[in-house]
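FAQ
Q: What does a multi-component entry look like?
A: The components come first, one per line:
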Amino acid sequence: MENPVEIREVTYAYGEGALRREVLREVDLRVGPGEIVILTGPSGSGKTTLLTLAGALRAVQQGSCRVLGRELAGAREAERVALRRRIGFIFQSHNLLGFLSARQNVAMALELDGGTGERERLERADAMLASVGLAEHAGKQPGQLSGGQRQRVAVARALVGSPGLILADEPTAALDKASGQEVVHLLRDLARSRGTAILLVTHDPRILDVADRIVAMEDGRVVADDAARAVNG
Amino acid sequence: MNAMSDLRPAARGAMRAPGFLSGSWLAVRLAWRQLRSERARLASAIAGVMFACVLVFMQLGFRAALFESATTLIGAMRADLFLMSPMTLASFRPETIPRVRVSQALGVEAVQAAVPVYLAQASFRNPESGRRRMIQLIGFDAEAGVLDLPGLAAMREALKQPDTIAFDARSRPEFGPVLRMFQEQGPFAVQIGNREMRVVGTVEMGTSFGADGNAVLSEVNFRRAVRERPQALVDLAAIRLKPGADLLAAQAALRAIMPPDVAVLTQEELRRHELRYWEEATPIGFIFSFGSLMGLIVGMVIVYQILFSDIAGHLKEYATLKAMGYSNAHLSRVVLGAAGILALLGFVPGTIASAMLYGVIADATFLPLAMATERAVTVFLMIFAMCGVAGLLAVRKLRDADPADMF
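Then the predicted structure of the entire assembly, as C-alpha coordinates:
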Protein backbone atom coordinates (compact mmCIF):
# COMPACT_ATOMS: atom_id res chain seq x y z
CA MET A 1 0.00 0.00 0.00
CA GLU A 2 1.20 3.45 -0.91
CA ASN A 3 2.32 5.90 1.75
CA PRO A 4 -0.24 8.66 2.27
CA VAL A 5 2.56 11.22 2.48
CA GLU A 6 5.84 10.90 0.62
CA ILE A 7 7.91 14.08 0.67
CA ARG A 8 11.36 14.11 -0.92
CA GLU A 9 13.94 16.86 -0.98
CA VAL A 10 11.43 19.63 -0.60
CA THR A 11 12.86 23.11 -0.35
CA TYR A 12 10.60 26.07 0.30
CA ALA A 13 11.36 29.77 0.65
CA TYR A 14 9.31 32.87 1.42
CA GLY A 15 10.07 36.19 -0.26
CA GLU A 16 12.22 36.88 -3.25
CA GLY A 17 15.63 38.29 -4.06
CA ALA A 18 17.37 39.79 -1.07
CA LEU A 19 14.37 39.03 1.14
CA ARG A 20 14.34 35.35 0.24
CA ARG A 21 14.26 33.23 3.33
CA GLU A 22 14.43 29.47 3.15
CA VAL A 23 12.20 27.77 5.69
CA LEU A 24 12.56 24.22 4.39
CA ARG A 25 15.83 22.76 3.14
CA GLU A 26 15.73 19.43 1.31
CA VAL A 27 13.29 17.88 3.72
CA ASP A 28 12.27 14.25 3.47
CA LEU A 29 9.18 13.02 5.28
CA ARG A 30 7.11 9.88 5.00
CA VAL A 31 3.87 8.95 6.70
CA GLY A 32 2.92 5.31 6.28
CA PRO A 33 -0.60 3.92 6.01
CA GLY A 34 -2.39 4.23 9.32
CA GLU A 35 0.67 5.79 10.89
CA ILE A 36 0.45 8.62 13.41
CA VAL A 37 3.38 10.98 13.03
CA ILE A 38 4.01 13.98 15.24
CA LEU A 39 6.03 16.78 13.79
CA THR A 40 7.69 18.85 16.49
CA GLY A 41 10.26 21.55 16.81
CA PRO A 42 10.67 25.15 17.88
CA SER A 43 8.82 28.04 16.27
CA GLY A 44 10.18 28.88 12.86
CA SER A 45 11.57 25.41 12.31
CA GLY A 46 9.42 25.02 9.23
CA LYS A 47 7.07 22.34 10.52
CA THR A 48 3.92 24.35 9.79
CA THR A 49 5.08 25.15 6.26
CA LEU A 50 5.70 21.47 5.71
CA LEU A 51 2.19 20.72 6.90
CA THR A 52 0.65 23.26 4.50
CA LEU A 53 2.60 21.70 1.64
CA ALA A 54 1.36 18.23 2.54
CA GLY A 55 -2.15 19.67 2.81
CA ALA A 56 -1.97 21.08 -0.71
CA LEU A 57 -2.53 24.54 0.75
CA ARG A 58 0.65 25.88 -0.85
CA ALA A 59 2.25 25.25 -4.20
CA VAL A 60 5.38 23.11 -4.06
CA GLN A 61 8.45 25.08 -5.18
CA GLN A 62 11.14 22.45 -5.29
CA GLY A 63 11.25 18.74 -4.69
CA SER A 64 8.56 16.09 -4.78
CA CYS A 65 5.49 15.94 -2.58
CA ARG A 66 3.17 12.97 -3.13
CA VAL A 67 0.01 12.99 -1.04
CA LEU A 68 -2.61 10.23 -1.32
CA GLY A 69 -0.96 9.14 -4.55
CA ARG A 70 -1.07 12.58 -6.14
CA GLU A 71 2.10 14.48 -7.05
CA LEU A 72 1.70 18.06 -5.89
CA ALA A 73 4.80 19.50 -7.54
CA GLY A 74 3.46 21.47 -10.48
CA ALA A 75 -0.18 20.67 -9.59
CA ARG A 76 -2.76 23.24 -10.62
CA GLU A 77 -4.89 25.09 -8.09
CA ALA A 78 -7.99 23.08 -9.03
CA GLU A 79 -6.11 19.80 -8.53
CA ARG A 80 -4.96 20.94 -5.12
CA VAL A 81 -8.49 21.96 -4.16
CA ALA A 82 -9.75 18.53 -5.27
CA LEU A 83 -7.08 16.75 -3.25
CA ARG A 84 -7.93 18.78 -0.14
CA ARG A 85 -11.37 17.21 -0.15
CA ARG A 86 -9.72 13.88 0.65
CA ILE A 87 -7.79 15.31 3.61
CA GLY A 88 -9.22 16.04 7.05
CA PHE A 89 -7.94 19.28 8.58
CA ILE A 90 -7.90 20.18 12.25
CA PHE A 91 -6.71 23.63 13.21
CA GLN A 92 -5.51 25.35 16.38
CA SER A 93 -8.89 26.87 16.84
CA HIS A 94 -12.01 25.03 15.85
CA ASN A 95 -13.02 27.52 13.09
CA LEU A 96 -16.57 26.23 13.10
CA LEU A 97 -19.21 28.34 11.40
CA GLY A 98 -20.92 30.13 14.27
CA PHE A 99 -24.29 30.30 12.56
CA LEU A 100 -24.55 26.57 11.94
CA SER A 101 -25.34 23.83 14.43
CA ALA A 102 -22.68 21.24 15.22
CA ARG A 103 -24.51 18.79 12.95
CA GLN A 104 -24.61 21.27 10.06
CA ASN A 105 -20.95 22.14 10.56
CA VAL A 106 -19.98 18.49 10.29
CA ALA A 107 -22.26 18.01 7.28
CA MET A 108 -20.44 20.87 5.52
CA ALA A 109 -17.56 18.48 4.95
CA LEU A 110 -19.91 16.14 3.09
CA GLU A 111 -21.56 18.80 0.95
CA LEU A 112 -18.46 18.72 -1.24
CA ASP A 113 -19.44 15.23 -2.34
CA GLY A 114 -22.23 15.47 -4.88
CA GLY A 115 -22.98 11.79 -4.35
CA THR A 116 -24.55 12.39 -0.94
CA GLY A 117 -28.08 13.52 -0.22
CA GLU A 118 -29.11 15.89 2.54
CA ARG A 119 -30.56 13.13 4.71
CA GLU A 120 -27.49 10.94 4.34
CA ARG A 121 -25.22 13.87 5.16
CA LEU A 122 -27.07 14.68 8.37
CA GLU A 123 -27.24 11.01 9.39
CA ARG A 124 -23.52 10.60 8.89
CA ALA A 125 -22.87 13.85 10.75
CA ASP A 126 -24.99 12.64 13.67
CA ALA A 127 -23.20 9.28 13.75
CA MET A 128 -19.84 11.01 13.66
CA LEU A 129 -20.84 13.39 16.46
CA ALA A 130 -22.01 10.39 18.48
CA SER A 131 -18.62 8.78 18.07
CA VAL A 132 -16.90 11.87 19.47
CA GLY A 133 -19.36 11.78 22.38
CA LEU A 134 -21.48 14.73 21.36
CA ALA A 135 -24.70 12.95 20.36
CA GLU A 136 -26.75 15.19 22.64
CA HIS A 137 -25.16 18.38 21.40
CA ALA A 138 -25.66 17.90 17.67
CA GLY A 139 -28.27 20.64 17.43
CA LYS A 140 -26.28 23.25 19.37
CA GLN A 141 -24.36 26.06 17.80
CA PRO A 142 -20.62 26.37 18.56
CA GLY A 143 -21.30 29.29 20.89
CA GLN A 144 -23.23 26.96 23.18
CA LEU A 145 -20.41 24.43 23.47
CA SER A 146 -17.26 24.35 25.60
CA GLY A 147 -13.81 24.69 24.05
CA GLY A 148 -13.16 20.95 24.24
CA GLN A 149 -16.56 20.16 22.76
CA ARG A 150 -15.98 22.55 19.87
CA GLN A 151 -12.65 20.95 19.07
CA ARG A 152 -14.37 17.57 19.14
CA VAL A 153 -16.88 18.89 16.61
CA ALA A 154 -13.89 19.97 14.51
CA VAL A 155 -12.49 16.44 14.82
CA ALA A 156 -15.83 15.04 13.70
CA ARG A 157 -15.86 17.43 10.76
CA ALA A 158 -12.35 16.36 9.74
CA LEU A 159 -13.22 12.67 9.94
CA VAL A 160 -16.76 12.47 8.63
CA GLY A 161 -15.73 12.41 4.98
CA SER A 162 -13.55 9.34 5.62
CA PRO A 163 -10.39 11.17 4.57
CA GLY A 164 -7.27 9.28 3.55
CA LEU A 165 -5.11 11.53 5.71
CA ILE A 166 -5.60 13.82 8.67
CA LEU A 167 -3.49 16.93 9.12
CA ALA A 168 -3.64 18.65 12.46
CA ASP A 169 -1.90 21.79 13.63
CA GLU A 170 -1.59 22.30 17.35
CA PRO A 171 -5.07 20.92 17.97
CA THR A 172 -4.63 21.30 21.71
CA ALA A 173 -3.26 24.83 21.71
CA ALA A 174 -6.51 26.42 22.80
CA LEU A 175 -7.45 23.70 25.30
CA ASP A 176 -6.62 22.89 28.90
CA LYS A 177 -4.65 19.75 29.64
CA ALA A 178 -7.59 17.42 30.25
CA SER A 179 -9.62 18.44 27.19
CA GLY A 180 -6.48 18.49 25.08
CA GLN A 181 -5.64 14.95 26.04
CA GLU A 182 -9.20 13.88 25.49
CA VAL A 183 -9.40 15.37 22.00
CA VAL A 184 -6.08 13.91 20.89
CA HIS A 185 -6.83 10.45 22.22
CA LEU A 186 -10.20 10.57 20.55
CA LEU A 187 -8.55 11.53 17.32
CA ARG A 188 -6.02 8.73 17.66
CA ASP A 189 -8.65 6.10 18.46
CA LEU A 190 -10.89 7.10 15.57
CA ALA A 191 -8.00 7.20 13.13
CA ARG A 192 -6.75 3.81 14.31
CA SER A 193 -10.12 2.18 13.91
CA ARG A 194 -10.30 3.43 10.35
CA GLY A 195 -6.67 3.01 9.45
CA THR A 196 -6.30 6.71 8.70
CA ALA A 197 -2.84 8.23 8.84
CA ILE A 198 -2.31 11.38 10.89
CA LEU A 199 0.34 14.05 10.56
CA LEU A 200 0.18 16.25 13.61
CA VAL A 201 2.22 19.34 14.34
CA THR A 202 2.64 20.25 17.98
CA HIS A 203 5.07 21.35 20.58
CA ASP A 204 2.79 20.28 23.36
CA PRO A 205 4.87 17.60 25.15
CA ARG A 206 1.76 16.25 26.87
CA ILE A 207 0.40 14.66 23.74
CA LEU A 208 3.53 13.12 22.27
CA ASP A 209 2.42 9.74 23.61
CA VAL A 210 -0.16 9.26 20.83
CA ALA A 211 2.50 9.11 18.12
CA ASP A 212 3.93 6.10 16.34
CA ARG A 213 6.81 8.26 15.24
CA ILE A 214 8.09 11.65 16.26
CA VAL A 215 9.88 13.79 13.71
CA ALA A 216 11.81 16.73 15.09
CA MET A 217 12.61 19.72 12.94
CA GLU A 218 14.96 22.57 13.43
CA ASP A 219 15.90 25.40 11.13
CA GLY A 220 14.18 23.92 8.12
CA ARG A 221 15.65 20.47 8.40
CA VAL A 222 14.59 17.18 9.94
CA VAL A 223 16.97 16.58 12.82
CA ALA A 224 15.47 13.46 14.37
CA ASP A 225 13.06 10.77 13.21
CA ASP A 226 12.41 8.26 15.97
CA ALA A 227 9.88 5.64 16.78
CA ALA A 228 7.95 6.96 19.75
CA ARG A 229 8.77 5.48 23.10
CA ALA A 230 5.30 4.78 24.33
CA VAL A 231 3.35 3.62 21.33
CA ASN A 232 -0.34 3.20 21.91
CA GLY A 233 0.13 4.13 25.55
CA MET B 1 -15.71 4.89 21.80
CA ASN B 2 -17.72 1.81 21.04
CA ALA B 3 -19.87 3.63 18.55
CA MET B 4 -17.03 3.54 16.09
CA SER B 5 -17.99 0.20 14.64
CA ASP B 6 -21.22 1.79 13.44
CA LEU B 7 -19.33 4.03 11.14
CA ARG B 8 -18.73 2.50 7.82
CA PRO B 9 -16.44 4.66 5.73
CA ALA B 10 -18.14 5.60 2.51
CA ALA B 11 -16.92 4.14 -0.73
CA ARG B 12 -13.54 5.68 -1.38
CA GLY B 13 -12.63 7.48 -4.53
CA ALA B 14 -16.28 7.78 -5.52
CA MET B 15 -16.37 11.46 -4.60
CA ARG B 16 -17.45 13.82 -7.30
CA ALA B 17 -18.18 17.48 -6.99
CA PRO B 18 -21.88 18.40 -6.77
CA GLY B 19 -23.51 19.52 -10.02
CA PHE B 20 -23.88 23.20 -10.73
CA LEU B 21 -27.51 23.33 -9.63
CA SER B 22 -27.21 21.38 -6.40
CA GLY B 23 -23.93 23.18 -5.67
CA SER B 24 -25.62 26.51 -6.14
CA TRP B 25 -28.52 25.44 -3.95
CA LEU B 26 -26.11 24.50 -1.16
CA ALA B 27 -24.27 27.81 -1.62
CA VAL B 28 -27.47 29.84 -1.45
CA ARG B 29 -28.67 27.88 1.57
CA LEU B 30 -25.40 28.58 3.36
CA ALA B 31 -25.72 32.25 2.43
CA TRP B 32 -29.24 32.37 3.81
CA ARG B 33 -28.22 30.64 7.05
CA GLN B 34 -25.45 33.17 7.49
CA LEU B 35 -27.69 36.16 6.73
CA ARG B 36 -30.40 34.83 9.02
CA SER B 37 -28.02 34.47 11.95
CA GLU B 38 -27.52 38.20 12.28
CA ARG B 39 -30.96 39.72 12.31
CA ALA B 40 -29.93 43.34 12.81
CA ARG B 41 -27.48 43.24 9.97
CA LEU B 42 -29.97 41.50 7.73
CA ALA B 43 -32.61 44.10 8.57
CA SER B 44 -30.29 46.98 7.73
CA ALA B 45 -29.28 45.33 4.46
CA ILE B 46 -32.91 44.81 3.50
CA ALA B 47 -33.68 48.39 4.45
CA GLY B 48 -30.84 49.54 2.22
CA VAL B 49 -32.10 47.58 -0.76
CA MET B 50 -35.65 48.73 -0.04
CA PHE B 51 -34.49 52.32 0.05
CA ALA B 52 -32.81 51.99 -3.33
CA CYS B 53 -35.85 50.19 -4.69
CA VAL B 54 -38.28 52.89 -3.56
CA LEU B 55 -36.03 55.65 -4.82
CA VAL B 56 -35.71 54.09 -8.27
CA PHE B 57 -39.44 53.40 -8.42
CA MET B 58 -40.17 57.02 -7.58
CA GLN B 59 -37.72 58.40 -10.10
CA LEU B 60 -38.91 56.13 -12.90
CA GLY B 61 -42.52 56.76 -11.91
CA PHE B 62 -42.13 60.52 -12.06
CA ARG B 63 -40.29 60.22 -15.30
CA ALA B 64 -42.98 58.06 -16.87
CA ALA B 65 -45.70 60.32 -15.47
CA LEU B 66 -44.01 63.34 -16.96
CA PHE B 67 -43.67 61.74 -20.34
CA GLU B 68 -47.16 60.35 -20.28
CA SER B 69 -48.72 63.62 -19.23
CA ALA B 70 -46.63 65.57 -21.71
CA THR B 71 -48.27 63.70 -24.54
CA THR B 72 -51.82 63.48 -23.20
CA LEU B 73 -53.03 66.14 -25.59
CA ILE B 74 -51.34 64.59 -28.62
CA GLY B 75 -52.62 61.17 -27.67
CA ALA B 76 -56.14 62.55 -27.37
CA MET B 77 -56.16 63.87 -30.92
CA ARG B 78 -57.79 61.69 -33.53
CA ALA B 79 -55.58 62.55 -36.45
CA ASP B 80 -53.14 60.73 -38.69
CA LEU B 81 -50.76 63.53 -39.55
CA PHE B 82 -49.88 66.88 -38.04
CA LEU B 83 -48.51 70.09 -39.43
CA MET B 84 -46.32 71.92 -36.99
CA SER B 85 -43.75 74.66 -37.12
CA PRO B 86 -40.26 73.15 -37.29
CA MET B 87 -39.34 75.74 -34.68
CA THR B 88 -41.74 74.34 -32.09
CA LEU B 89 -39.91 72.73 -29.19
CA ALA B 90 -42.90 71.53 -27.24
CA SER B 91 -46.63 71.85 -27.67
CA PHE B 92 -47.15 73.89 -24.53
CA ARG B 93 -45.01 76.62 -26.08
CA PRO B 94 -45.81 76.40 -29.78
CA GLU B 95 -44.53 78.44 -32.70
CA THR B 96 -47.22 79.36 -35.12
CA ILE B 97 -47.73 78.30 -38.73
CA PRO B 98 -49.70 80.18 -41.39
CA ARG B 99 -53.34 79.18 -41.37
CA VAL B 100 -53.27 78.82 -45.13
CA ARG B 101 -51.16 75.65 -44.78
CA VAL B 102 -54.20 73.92 -43.33
CA SER B 103 -56.17 74.62 -46.50
CA GLN B 104 -53.20 73.67 -48.63
CA ALA B 105 -53.14 70.25 -47.04
CA LEU B 106 -56.53 69.57 -48.56
CA GLY B 107 -54.83 69.66 -51.94
CA VAL B 108 -53.39 66.21 -51.32
CA GLU B 109 -55.65 63.48 -52.61
CA ALA B 110 -55.51 61.24 -49.53
CA VAL B 111 -56.45 64.01 -47.07
CA GLN B 112 -60.01 63.89 -45.86
CA ALA B 113 -59.95 66.72 -43.34
CA ALA B 114 -57.47 69.26 -42.04
CA VAL B 115 -58.31 71.10 -38.85
CA PRO B 116 -56.42 73.94 -37.18
CA VAL B 117 -55.59 73.54 -33.50
CA TYR B 118 -54.83 76.54 -31.32
CA LEU B 119 -52.72 76.32 -28.21
CA ALA B 120 -51.99 79.11 -25.75
CA GLN B 121 -51.53 79.66 -22.08
CA ALA B 122 -53.73 82.27 -20.47
CA SER B 123 -54.48 83.30 -16.93
CA PHE B 124 -57.50 81.73 -15.27
CA ARG B 125 -59.03 83.34 -12.24
CA ASN B 126 -59.94 80.93 -9.50
CA PRO B 127 -63.72 81.43 -9.15
CA GLU B 128 -63.49 80.94 -5.40
CA SER B 129 -60.35 82.72 -4.27
CA GLY B 130 -59.91 85.07 -7.23
CA ARG B 131 -56.26 84.15 -7.67
CA ARG B 132 -54.90 83.93 -11.21
CA ARG B 133 -52.99 80.99 -12.58
CA MET B 134 -51.85 80.05 -16.08
CA ILE B 135 -54.06 77.52 -17.80
CA GLN B 136 -53.54 75.76 -21.12
CA LEU B 137 -56.17 76.71 -23.68
CA ILE B 138 -56.86 74.26 -26.48
CA GLY B 139 -58.87 75.72 -29.31
CA PHE B 140 -60.20 73.66 -32.21
CA ASP B 141 -63.08 73.34 -34.57
CA ALA B 142 -65.71 71.73 -32.39
CA GLU B 143 -67.43 70.36 -35.46
CA ALA B 144 -64.47 68.41 -36.82
CA GLY B 145 -64.15 66.05 -33.88
CA VAL B 146 -60.36 65.82 -33.90
CA LEU B 147 -60.12 65.96 -30.15
CA ASP B 148 -61.32 62.89 -28.32
CA LEU B 149 -61.50 63.49 -24.59
CA PRO B 150 -63.91 61.84 -22.15
CA GLY B 151 -66.96 64.04 -21.83
CA LEU B 152 -66.20 66.23 -24.83
CA ALA B 153 -68.58 64.73 -27.40
CA ALA B 154 -71.63 65.66 -25.33
CA MET B 155 -70.58 69.28 -25.19
CA ARG B 156 -70.07 69.86 -28.87
CA GLU B 157 -73.16 72.05 -29.22
CA ALA B 158 -72.61 73.91 -25.95
CA LEU B 159 -69.08 74.85 -26.98
CA LYS B 160 -70.40 76.53 -30.11
CA GLN B 161 -72.03 79.18 -27.94
CA PRO B 162 -70.03 82.39 -27.62
CA ASP B 163 -67.51 82.60 -24.79
CA THR B 164 -67.85 79.07 -23.54
CA ILE B 165 -65.19 76.65 -22.34
CA ALA B 166 -65.00 73.07 -21.13
CA PHE B 167 -62.84 72.84 -18.05
CA ASP B 168 -60.46 69.91 -17.45
CA ALA B 169 -61.77 68.36 -14.24
CA ARG B 170 -58.33 66.88 -13.55
CA SER B 171 -56.62 70.28 -13.47
CA ARG B 172 -54.74 71.13 -10.29
CA PRO B 173 -56.97 72.18 -7.37
CA GLU B 174 -55.42 75.66 -7.37
CA PHE B 175 -57.82 76.55 -10.17
CA GLY B 176 -60.67 76.22 -7.75
CA PRO B 177 -63.49 73.75 -7.23
CA VAL B 178 -64.72 74.17 -10.78
CA LEU B 179 -66.12 70.66 -11.13
CA ARG B 180 -68.05 70.89 -7.85
CA MET B 181 -69.36 74.35 -8.67
CA PHE B 182 -70.46 73.17 -12.09
CA GLN B 183 -72.21 70.15 -10.64
CA GLU B 184 -73.95 72.32 -8.07
CA GLN B 185 -74.99 75.34 -10.12
CA GLY B 186 -74.60 74.44 -13.76
CA PRO B 187 -72.79 76.76 -16.16
CA PHE B 188 -71.11 79.69 -14.45
CA ALA B 189 -68.81 82.54 -15.39
CA VAL B 190 -65.04 82.49 -15.01
CA GLN B 191 -62.39 84.92 -16.11
CA ILE B 192 -59.85 83.88 -18.70
CA GLY B 193 -57.30 86.52 -19.58
CA ASN B 194 -59.38 89.64 -19.30
CA ARG B 195 -62.49 88.06 -20.69
CA GLU B 196 -65.49 86.63 -18.98
CA MET B 197 -66.30 83.14 -20.24
CA ARG B 198 -68.73 80.48 -19.16
CA VAL B 199 -67.86 76.97 -18.03
CA VAL B 200 -70.40 74.81 -19.81
CA GLY B 201 -68.99 71.42 -18.94
CA THR B 202 -65.96 69.44 -17.90
CA VAL B 203 -63.66 67.00 -19.67
CA GLU B 204 -61.03 64.59 -18.36
CA MET B 205 -57.49 65.25 -19.47
CA GLY B 206 -54.94 65.65 -16.68
CA THR B 207 -52.08 67.92 -15.82
CA SER B 208 -48.61 67.77 -17.26
CA PHE B 209 -45.32 69.37 -16.38
CA GLY B 210 -46.12 71.96 -19.05
CA ALA B 211 -49.68 72.68 -17.99
CA ASP B 212 -51.26 72.85 -14.53
CA GLY B 213 -54.71 72.77 -16.02
CA ASN B 214 -56.55 72.74 -19.32
CA ALA B 215 -59.57 74.32 -20.88
CA VAL B 216 -61.02 73.28 -24.21
CA LEU B 217 -62.85 75.77 -26.37
CA SER B 218 -63.90 76.35 -29.92
CA GLU B 219 -61.76 78.05 -32.52
CA VAL B 220 -63.85 81.21 -32.42
CA ASN B 221 -63.92 81.42 -28.66
CA PHE B 222 -60.17 80.83 -28.57
CA ARG B 223 -59.69 83.91 -30.73
CA ARG B 224 -61.92 85.88 -28.40
CA ALA B 225 -59.93 84.80 -25.37
CA VAL B 226 -56.50 85.24 -26.94
CA ARG B 227 -56.87 88.60 -28.61
CA GLU B 228 -53.22 89.13 -29.47
CA ARG B 229 -53.22 86.13 -31.77
CA PRO B 230 -53.42 87.19 -35.49
CA GLN B 231 -56.18 85.37 -37.30
CA ALA B 232 -53.88 84.00 -39.97
CA LEU B 233 -51.73 82.02 -37.58
CA VAL B 234 -52.46 78.62 -36.02
CA ASP B 235 -50.35 76.40 -33.78
CA LEU B 236 -50.95 72.94 -35.12
CA ALA B 237 -52.94 71.35 -37.90
CA ALA B 238 -54.51 67.95 -37.41
CA ILE B 239 -54.99 66.02 -40.62
CA ARG B 240 -57.24 63.05 -41.03
CA LEU B 241 -56.71 60.78 -44.02
CA LYS B 242 -59.33 59.05 -46.14
CA PRO B 243 -59.98 55.45 -45.07
CA GLY B 244 -57.41 53.10 -46.49
CA ALA B 245 -54.97 55.84 -47.44
CA ASP B 246 -51.28 55.08 -47.04
CA LEU B 247 -49.90 57.10 -44.13
CA LEU B 248 -46.30 57.40 -45.28
CA ALA B 249 -47.26 58.12 -48.88
CA ALA B 250 -49.62 60.88 -47.71
CA GLN B 251 -46.88 62.27 -45.48
CA ALA B 252 -44.47 62.33 -48.41
CA ALA B 253 -47.07 63.99 -50.63
CA LEU B 254 -47.72 66.68 -48.01
CA ARG B 255 -44.02 67.29 -47.56
CA ALA B 256 -43.69 67.73 -51.30
CA ILE B 257 -46.22 70.53 -51.45
CA MET B 258 -45.47 72.26 -48.16
CA PRO B 259 -42.99 75.13 -47.89
CA PRO B 260 -40.23 74.65 -45.33
CA ASP B 261 -42.11 76.64 -42.68
CA VAL B 262 -44.06 73.55 -41.64
CA ALA B 263 -43.04 70.05 -40.68
CA VAL B 264 -45.28 67.08 -41.45
CA LEU B 265 -45.30 64.56 -38.64
CA THR B 266 -47.20 61.41 -37.89
CA GLN B 267 -48.85 61.19 -34.50
CA GLU B 268 -46.09 58.91 -33.26
CA GLU B 269 -43.43 61.29 -34.55
CA LEU B 270 -45.10 64.21 -32.84
CA ARG B 271 -45.30 62.24 -29.61
CA ARG B 272 -41.63 61.41 -29.83
CA HIS B 273 -40.79 65.01 -30.68
CA GLU B 274 -42.56 66.06 -27.51
CA LEU B 275 -40.80 63.38 -25.44
CA ARG B 276 -37.44 64.36 -26.88
CA TYR B 277 -37.98 67.88 -25.66
CA TRP B 278 -38.52 66.74 -22.09
CA GLU B 279 -35.79 64.18 -22.28
CA GLU B 280 -33.09 66.21 -23.98
CA ALA B 281 -33.87 69.90 -23.99
CA THR B 282 -34.76 70.00 -20.31
CA PRO B 283 -32.73 68.64 -17.42
CA ILE B 284 -35.81 66.76 -16.22
CA GLY B 285 -35.07 63.47 -17.95
CA PHE B 286 -31.48 63.63 -16.78
CA ILE B 287 -32.51 64.46 -13.24
CA PHE B 288 -34.64 61.35 -13.00
CA SER B 289 -31.96 59.13 -14.52
CA PHE B 290 -29.43 60.64 -12.17
CA GLY B 291 -31.76 60.15 -9.22
CA SER B 292 -32.24 56.50 -10.13
CA LEU B 293 -28.51 56.02 -10.48
CA MET B 294 -27.88 57.63 -7.09
CA GLY B 295 -30.41 55.33 -5.48
CA LEU B 296 -28.75 52.31 -7.04
CA ILE B 297 -25.28 53.46 -5.97
CA VAL B 298 -26.36 54.06 -2.40
CA GLY B 299 -28.05 50.66 -2.33
CA MET B 300 -25.01 49.03 -3.83
CA VAL B 301 -22.69 50.57 -1.25
CA ILE B 302 -24.94 49.38 1.58
CA VAL B 303 -25.14 45.84 0.22
CA TYR B 304 -21.41 45.83 -0.48
CA GLN B 305 -20.68 46.95 3.08
CA ILE B 306 -22.85 44.20 4.52
CA LEU B 307 -21.38 41.47 2.32
CA PHE B 308 -17.85 42.75 2.78
CA SER B 309 -18.05 42.84 6.56
CA ASP B 310 -19.64 39.39 6.54
CA ILE B 311 -16.58 38.06 4.72
CA ALA B 312 -14.06 40.15 6.63
CA GLY B 313 -15.55 39.04 9.93
CA HIS B 314 -15.43 35.38 8.96
CA LEU B 315 -12.11 35.16 7.12
CA LYS B 316 -10.94 32.25 9.26
CA GLU B 317 -14.12 30.31 8.61
CA TYR B 318 -13.91 30.98 4.89
CA ALA B 319 -10.25 29.94 4.90
CA THR B 320 -11.21 26.76 6.73
CA LEU B 321 -13.82 26.00 4.09
CA LYS B 322 -11.17 26.51 1.44
CA ALA B 323 -8.83 24.15 3.28
CA MET B 324 -11.63 21.58 3.37
CA GLY B 325 -11.73 21.73 -0.40
CA TYR B 326 -14.35 24.35 -1.09
CA SER B 327 -13.33 26.17 -4.24
CA ASN B 328 -13.15 29.91 -4.55
CA ALA B 329 -15.92 29.64 -7.14
CA HIS B 330 -18.25 27.92 -4.68
CA LEU B 331 -17.60 30.48 -1.97
CA SER B 332 -18.17 33.23 -4.56
CA ARG B 333 -21.54 31.66 -5.18
CA VAL B 334 -22.25 31.89 -1.46
CA VAL B 335 -21.53 35.62 -1.50
CA LEU B 336 -23.48 36.20 -4.71
CA GLY B 337 -26.27 34.06 -3.30
CA ALA B 338 -26.42 36.37 -0.30
CA ALA B 339 -26.56 39.33 -2.70
CA GLY B 340 -29.41 37.69 -4.59
CA ILE B 341 -31.33 36.99 -1.39
CA LEU B 342 -30.93 40.61 -0.29
CA ALA B 343 -32.13 41.78 -3.71
CA LEU B 344 -35.25 39.67 -3.41
CA LEU B 345 -35.94 40.50 0.25
CA GLY B 346 -35.50 44.21 -0.40
CA PHE B 347 -37.40 44.29 -3.67
CA VAL B 348 -40.66 42.80 -2.45
CA PRO B 349 -41.35 45.23 0.42
CA GLY B 350 -39.79 48.01 -1.63
CA THR B 351 -42.30 47.43 -4.40
CA ILE B 352 -45.23 47.31 -2.02
CA ALA B 353 -44.07 50.53 -0.35
CA SER B 354 -43.61 52.16 -3.76
CA ALA B 355 -47.09 51.16 -4.91
CA MET B 356 -48.52 52.76 -1.78
CA LEU B 357 -46.41 55.87 -2.23
CA TYR B 358 -47.53 56.13 -5.85
CA GLY B 359 -51.12 56.30 -4.64
CA VAL B 360 -50.33 59.01 -2.11
CA ILE B 361 -48.33 61.10 -4.57
CA ALA B 362 -50.81 60.66 -7.42
CA ASP B 363 -53.55 62.01 -5.13
CA ALA B 364 -51.41 64.96 -4.15
CA THR B 365 -49.94 65.93 -7.50
CA PHE B 366 -52.56 64.72 -10.02
CA LEU B 367 -49.77 63.10 -12.00
CA PRO B 368 -50.59 59.74 -13.58
CA LEU B 369 -48.50 57.61 -11.19
CA ALA B 370 -49.23 53.92 -10.90
CA MET B 371 -47.33 50.67 -10.45
CA ALA B 372 -46.71 49.16 -13.89
CA THR B 373 -45.60 45.56 -14.38
CA GLU B 374 -43.04 46.54 -16.95
CA ARG B 375 -41.49 49.08 -14.62
CA ALA B 376 -41.51 46.55 -11.77
CA VAL B 377 -39.58 44.13 -13.97
CA THR B 378 -37.13 46.88 -14.94
CA VAL B 379 -36.58 47.88 -11.32
CA PHE B 380 -36.20 44.25 -10.28
CA LEU B 381 -33.47 43.79 -12.88
CA MET B 382 -31.81 47.01 -11.74
CA ILE B 383 -31.91 45.99 -8.08
CA PHE B 384 -30.66 42.53 -8.97
CA ALA B 385 -27.81 44.03 -10.99
CA MET B 386 -27.07 46.43 -8.14
CA CYS B 387 -26.77 43.59 -5.64
CA GLY B 388 -24.86 41.53 -8.19
CA VAL B 389 -22.23 44.24 -8.64
CA ALA B 390 -22.01 44.68 -4.87
CA GLY B 391 -21.54 40.92 -4.58
CA LEU B 392 -18.86 40.84 -7.24
CA LEU B 393 -17.00 43.64 -5.48
CA ALA B 394 -17.28 41.86 -2.14
CA VAL B 395 -16.14 38.54 -3.62
CA ARG B 396 -12.68 40.01 -4.09
CA LYS B 397 -12.32 39.99 -0.32
CA LEU B 398 -12.49 36.18 -0.42
CA ARG B 399 -8.97 36.16 -1.81
CA ASP B 400 -7.79 37.28 1.60
CA ALA B 401 -9.07 34.05 3.05
CA ASP B 402 -5.91 32.01 2.51
CA PRO B 403 -6.05 28.50 3.95
CA ALA B 404 -2.25 28.40 4.06
CA ASP B 405 -2.39 31.06 6.79
CA MET B 406 -4.59 28.87 8.91
CA PHE B 407 -1.80 26.72 10.28
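Q: Is there any commentary attached?
A: Sometimes. For this entry: Chain A touches chain B through 49 residues (CB under 8 Å).
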